[in-house]
């Protein structure tokens, strides 16, 4: 992993600072001023297929981001012509098809450990208290859908398409899509259709059903829009932003009564922050959140 501060400029003219380079993903702090981190699937020659290194590196990457006080929001994208073609079957076939173990029970436990490890690769995005804005372009296949449903805000380019591809390769999606997609789009019939047929869903349908909140003309504009949204989020109080994400996810999985009680317990301590007074003062002075300097969290 490369942790040197190498500077580069991307096609949008924004300065990047590399703080971590992995084999399958690239992680960059856009700038210390914006507090936005850019994570990019970085196997363009393999259509960003997810190999063995990816599953390990994603967990390490987002655990670092979760603890990084300079980061307040994340943009996730893919290098090259497509977002991702899903699992790299050639690279991972041996681990999936030839499990270790002396008998069926032991092989089953080995497979279970592999599956739960893969599940954590995307759950770590959801567990990260920093909001994640994903910018999809081109194909988003199989595990790519698992990945984006764990993100907080989803944008895509006009040429994007999505496929819950797992049934076409002889398995049920097992790392998040079947658990998260129903609540993301709120249409169980459509979820069932997509998961059982593996058909392509194009960008306009993805927008109409709620999988994405915006459709932009191309890769460049969708990434620019994602950076703008992340910048707006990062300009707000990190106490307020991270508390909002955590409570939104809690409310999804609990009753209204339980969620209100959790919220009251949360804010009994989180309201005791200077950020509240700073934000109120800025509003009275007709300043924007970007005019306020919030302490690191």
Automatic annotation (TrEMBL):
GO molecular function: delta(3,5)-delta(2,4)-dienoyl-CoA isomerase activity
Family according to the record: Belongs to the enoyl-CoA hydratase/isomerase family.
UniProt-recorded name of the protein: Delta(3,5)-Delta(2,4)-dienoyl-CoA isomerase, mitochondrial
Biological classification of the source: Eukaryota, Metazoa, Chordata, Craniata, Vertebrata
GO-annotated biological processes: fatty acid beta-oxidation
NCBIfam families listed in its UniProt record: PRK06142.1
Described function: Isomerization of 3-trans,5-cis-dienoyl-CoA to 2-trans,4-trans-dienoyl-CoA.
GO cellular component: mitochondrion; peroxisome
SUPFAM superfamilies assigned to the protein according to its UniProt record, in alphabetical order: ClpP/crotonase (SSF52096)
Keyword line: Acetylation, Fatty acid metabolism, Isomerase, Lipid metabolism, Peroxisome
Subcellular location(s) per record: Peroxisome
Pathway linked to the protein: Lipid metabolism; fatty acid beta-oxidation
């Amino acid at each position: 992993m490369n942790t040197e501060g190498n500077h580069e400029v991307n096609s949008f003219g924004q300065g990047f600072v590399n703080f971590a380079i992995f084999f399958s993903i690239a992680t960059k702090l856009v700038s210390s001023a914006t507090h936005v981190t850019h994570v990019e699937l970085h196997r363009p020659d393999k259509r960003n297929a997810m190999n063995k290194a990816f599953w390990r590196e994603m967990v390490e990457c987002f655990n670092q981001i979760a603890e990084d006080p300079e980061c307040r929001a994340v943009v996730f994208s893919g290098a090259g012509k497509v977002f991702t073609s899903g699992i790299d079957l050639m690279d991972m076939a041996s681990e999936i098809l030839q499990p270790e173990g002396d008998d069926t029970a032991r092989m089953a436990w080995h497979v279970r450990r592999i599956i739960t490890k893969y599940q954590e690769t995307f759950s770590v995005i959801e567990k990260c208290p920093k909001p994640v804005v994903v910018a999809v372009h081109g194909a988003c296949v199989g595990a790519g859908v698992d990945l984006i449903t764990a993100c907080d805000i989803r944008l895509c380019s006009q040429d994007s398409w999505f496929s819950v591809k797992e049934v076409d390769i002889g398995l049920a999606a097992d790392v998040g899509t079947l658990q998260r997609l129903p609540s993301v789009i709120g249409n169980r019939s459509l979820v069932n259709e997509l998961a059982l047929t593996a058909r392509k869903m194009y960008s306009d349908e993805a927008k109409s059903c709620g999988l994405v909140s915006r459709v932009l003309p191309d890769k460049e504009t969708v990434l620019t829009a994602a950076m703008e949204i992340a910048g707006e989020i990062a300009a707000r109080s990190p106490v307020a932003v991270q508390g909002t994400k955590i409570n939104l996810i809690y409310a999804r999985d609990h009753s209204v009564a339980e969620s209100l009680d959790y919220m009251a317990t949360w804010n009994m301590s989180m309201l005791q922050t200077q950020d509240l007074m700073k934000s109120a003062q800025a509003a009275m002075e007709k300043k924007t959140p970007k005019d306020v300097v919030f302490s690191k969290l």
